[in-house]
Specification:
It is a single chain. The N and C termini lie far apart (about 60 Å). Helices cover about 5% and strands about 40% of the residues. The chain is globular. The protein contains two helices and 30 strands. β6 and β7 form a beta hairpin. The chain is mainly beta and about 450 residues long. It has a four-stranded antiparallel beta sheet, with no helix packed on it. It has a four-stranded antiparallel beta sheet with strand order 4-5-6-7, with no helix packed on it. A four-stranded antiparallel beta sheet has the order 8-9-10-11, with no helix packed on it.
Length: about 450
């Protein structure tokens, strides 16, 4: 079935690794890993929408020197391969039997030693290696209010010390790690109503979460992104190739045109600013794999194609530089986190012009109002919020009528201290060098 696969991509990958110098590297270095999805079972539409994540019959394949090896033959279905920074260990999502939930596993590429990392009844997906050797992944959960969504967790490869790191009623998926050490992931509100899709960035301990990129409201998928050597973030947006500058992601979108390509499913960074991609060529019924040059052109003789299978989620087993390891300053004994806002009126949230000026900030949870406080004359406020709990904020006038809001959901980790220019302000605004009046007092507790 795989005899029709071209080996040009493998040759390109091998030459690339050779050129950067690899005198004493493991045998698996430079091999190509990807997910196979049978055309008969998984449609193009399912791949473009992201609905294939828990499909049956997926398998992870390694291509070495023109030969194909199925790495997950003992699994009913497996996908989402990611390789450790030393290039030696693959982490992935899979289920062994049809009745199993999807779990996170690791596989030593040389010895083929297999380890189950998570053991839960919930589905787990989209694992990624963190700079400290832990693994971040998405877990499908149902919270205490019976709202179902995917939250991000971290865990040691041994299965020890699982920790939840996002706490909003959002589908948080497709995480990757940027070179500055932060996680970048797609996020969409699911409660109380569907929200806009966006990329959020945060530290691996779940602190300092902020909007990184907000696409047009028509966008329905943001797949796992990668950072290139020139500090561009490359990704698939509703199946189309996009890049933004790391330093100005909200205002630097570029739309490279891939000649003869209708859709892009995945992008993974390589050496020399090349990008390994899964693409759907014009007129083709299946996704194939190719290499994009620094100038975002498909390289000649680099396509890997199989008419019976979509080839998606491609990565190269190669050692790469570690991103920054960001320290955590959380104090897990503190039940609160703290937010100071410089000016609640500096906001992109629409204002109800009929309600006049904001005089108070209110904090809401699932059940409704949990607290409120006066906004200072300079527009600032300083509050203590319940740690690891989703909340929303809104401003009201002196009569208690809503002027702005409610905002989207936010959370703070134990003892986390966050500051913002305004309420959902442009994330690239630089604050004025002033001391807000609100910090001249103790934070107002917003805890039931």
């Amino acid at each position: 079935m795989l005899s029709n696969i071209k080996v040009g991509l493998l040759v390109s990958v091998a030459l690339l690794v050779f050129m950067i110098g690899c005198s004493e590297k493991p045998a698996n270095q430079g091999t190509l890993l990807f997910t196979q999805a049978q055309v008969a079972n998984v449609s193009v539409e399912s791949i473009l929408s992201g609905n294939y994540k828990y499909a049956d019959g997926l398998r992870i394949v390694q291509e070495t020197s023109g030969s194909i090896e199925i790495l997950t033959d003992e699994f009913t279905s497996a996908r989402s391969p990611e390789v450790s920074y030393d290039g030696e260990t693959m982490v992935f999502s899979g289920k062994k039997t049809a009745t199993d939930s999807w779990q996170i596993w690791t596989l030593e590429l040389d010895t083929k030693s297999l380890t189950q990392v998570t053991s839960t009844t919930e589905n787990c997906t989209d694992p990624v290696w963190l700079p400290d050797g832990r693994i971040a992944f998405s877990k499908q959960i149902t919270d205490e209010s019976q709202v179902q969504y995917h939250a991000l967790f971290t865990i040691d490869p041994s299965g020890c010390c699982e920790q939840r790191i996002t706490f909003q009623p959002h589908d948080d998926l497709n995480a990757s790690v940027m070179n500055d050490g932060r996680l970048l992931f797609s996020s969409r509100q699911v409660y109380p109503e569907p929200g806009a899709l966006k990329y959020l960035a945060m530290r691996p301990d779940g602190t300092k979460a902020e909007i990184f990129y907000l696409p047009d409201s028509s966008v329905n998928t943001l797949n796992r992104a990668c950072e290139t050597g020139s500090r561009k973030i490359a990704f698939s947006e509703s199946g189309l190739f996009r890049t933004v500058n790391f330093s100005r992601p909200m205002h630097s979108q570029e739309k490279p045109i891939l000649q003869g390509v209708d859709y892009l499913q995945s992008a993974s960074s390589m050496q020399d600013e090349k990008i390994l991609c899964s693409i759907l060529k014009s007129g083709s019924p299946v996704f194939s794999i190719t290499i994009l040059s620094k100038d975002h052109q498909t390289e000649a003789s680099s396509e890997t194609h199989d008419p019976a299978n979509h080839l998606i989620e491609a990565v190269v087993a190669q050692s790469r530089e570690l991103p920054r390891k960001l320290p955590s300053l959380m104090n897990m004994d503190d039940p609160s986190g703290y937010i100071v806002c410089l000016n609640a009126e500096a906001s992109t949230i629409p204002v109800d012009q009929n309600q006049g000026k904001s005089s108070k900030i209110q904090v809401l949870d699932y059940s409704g109002l949990i607290g409120e406080t006066e906004i200072e004359s300079d527009g600032s406020f300083y509050v203590a919020l319940p740690a690891d709990q989703p909340v929303r904020m809104q401003t009201v006038n002196s009569e208690g009528k809503v002027v702005r809001g409610p905002s989207s959901w936010i959370w703070v980790r134990p003892s986390e201290r966050r500051g913002c220019v305004g309420c959902h302000e442009d994330s690239e605004i630089t604050p004025e060098n002033v001391v807000p009046k609100a910090v001249e007092k103790a934070p107002v507790a917003m805890i039931k």
